[in-house]
Amino acid sequence: MKRATMIRLFLLGLALTGAVGSVSYADQCVPDPNAVCPAIFDPVTCNNGVTYSNSCFAAADCAKGCRPA
After folding, report:
1. Which of 18, 36, 62, 65, by CA, is between 20 and 30 Å from 27?
2. In the chain, what is the straight-line distance between the N-terminal and C-terminal CA atoms, in Å?
């Protein structure tokens, strides 16, 4: 009985660790210096304090919390 409980707790721990690990990887973004964005001037200012010419360039730079400038 005790062994079965320990195995269940171990498997639950593995499942929770995998879920937390996948969330942390999902939040990571790698800037894309070769992004192909339209040349439309629609400026946005993001949480990093940078104003980009449009939201495509902001997304390519992994900027978050962007609002129209």
Report:
1. 36
2. 63
Which helix (H) or strand (E) segment holds residue 67: the answer is strand 67-68
- The rounded distance, in Å, linking the Cα atoms of 19 and 11 is 12
Give pLDDT, residue 8: 78
* Side chain identity at residue 6, one-letter code: M
Is 37 buried (19+), middle (13-18) or exposed (0-12) by CB count in 10 A?
middle
Average pLDDT value for residue range 7-19 = 69
Return phi, psi of residue 62, to 5°: 60, 30
> CA-to-CA distance for 47 and 69, rounded, in angstroms?
12
Over residues 27-43, the mean pLDDT reads 94
